[in-house]
Design a protein that fits this description.
It catalyses: a 2'-deoxyribonucleoside 5'-diphosphate + ATP = a 2'-deoxyribonucleoside 5'-triphosphate + ADP. The protein has 151 residues and is of the alpha+beta class. Bound molecules: 2'-deoxyadenosine-5'-diphosphate and magnesium ion.
Length: 151
């Protein structure tokens, strides 16, 4: 495993339901480093770009409408194997299949209201981070706890 970055977002339902702090707390307590964070409503075109891979799916219009229905908390988290581990912390796409203890397994029921997003590969993470953040929004800082989190 390598030190990676991933794009994690609290979707509009997660923001409306007051789950922002809880979701941040999970990544923070796990030991990952917060690299960037903002509350945004980026608009339809941006969201269509974010989910470009899914544009031919029947649920695509509904997905974009949902993602455009309120503010989103966009974040970049860094750490060892964080792309795969972030997905594991999120749980399965369909919350009914997400294990309890995961974000979706603890807070969601419907696939179209699954509370949070996480990049599914290092390549997609790089693409998504570049879409959602300007280079100068990515903050370089040293975690004082680093020696207690990594060997
Ligand atoms: P994930 O968000 O786990 O990466 P994905 O990239 O395949 O899943 O799909 C993006 C989002 O689209 C997903 O979080 C919820 C929605 N979605 C996926 N499959 C769906 C389906 N069969 N019906 C309705 N919405 C769906
Ligand atoms: Mg995905």
């Amino acid at each position: 495993p390598a030190i990676e970055r991933t794009f994690i977002a609290v979707k509009p339902d997660g923001v409306q339901r007051g789950l922002v702090g809880n979701i941040i707390a999970r990544f923070e307590a796990r030991g990952f480093r917060l690299v960037a964070l903002k509350l945004v409503r980026p608009g339809k075109e941006h969201l269509e770009q974010h989910y470009a891979e899914l544009k031919d799916k029947p649920f695509f219009p509904g997905l974009i409408e949902y993602m455009n229905s309120g503010p989103i908390v966009a974040m970049v988290w860094e750490g060892l194997d964080v792309v795969k581990t972030g997905r594991a912390m999120l749980g399965a796409t369909n919350p009914l299949a997400s294990a309890p203890g995961t974000i979706r397994g603890d807070y969601a029921i419907a696939v179209g209201r699954n509370v949070a997003h996480g990049s599914d590969s290092v390549e997609n993470a790089e693409r998504e981070i570049a879409l959602w953040f300007k280079p100068e929004e990515l903050v370089d800082w040293e975690q004082s706890q680093k020696a207690w989190i990594y060997e």
